[in-house]
Design brief:
Layout (H helix, E strand, L loop, with lengths): L5 E3 L7 E7 L3 H9 L1 H4 L10 E6 L6 E7 L5 E12 L3 E8 L7 E10 L2 E9 L4 H24 L1
Antiparallel strand pairs: 1-2, 2-8, 3-4, 4-5, 5-6, 6-7, 7-8
Length: 153
């Protein structure tokens, strides 16, 4: 069963909130975000491949993901894990290699619900509203790909 993604973009605030329910166990959704081989199977805004996924899953550990979009452009993002609460909460910084000075923060909250898992993705501290709005497409596409990956797993 498909579930719509709820997107909230508060006017005038560089914050993005997505809420999505998946028909998958909480542990599987957690692994999709925290295991490099899983990330390689779904991350990115469109059908382009993930070229690299590195995860050092601990507070203070780093992650890095590189992907190519369907138009052939390469993108690379990385950050530092601030909080790691297995299966429930993951907080990390987010900065594109092309603009390393523009550090934002992502919080993932996972909650078991009947028949699956609810994911709340809160992306805060964007440089400006344009940056936030550009991330809507990226995160929405990634969440759709995550849903497809979870159905295959």
């Amino acid at each position: 069963m498909a579930h719509a993604t709820i997107t909230e973009k508060p006017p005038g605030k560089p914050v993005l909130k997505l809420i999505r329910r998946f028909d998958a166990p909480q542990a599987l959704v957690w692994r999709a975000w925290t295991e490099p081989e899983a990330l390689k199977r779904w991350f990115g805004p469109d059908g382009g491949p993930v070229l690299l996924a590195e995860v050092d899953l601990r507070a203070g550990g780093r992650f890095r993901v590189a992907f190519q979009t369907e138009d052939g452009e390469r993108h690379e993002v990385g950050g530092v894990y601030r909080e790691v609460q297995a299966h429930d909460r993951l907080v990390f910084t987010w900065a594109w290699v092309s603009t390393p000075e523009r550090i934002s923060q992502v919080t993932l909250l996972l909650r078991g619900v009947e028949g699956g898992t609810e994911l709340t993705l809160l992306h805060e501290k964007f440089f400006d509203l344009d940056a936030r709005d550009r991330h809507v497409r990226g995160w929405t596409g990634s969440i759709e790909k995550l849903d497809a990956y979870l159905h295959q797993s």
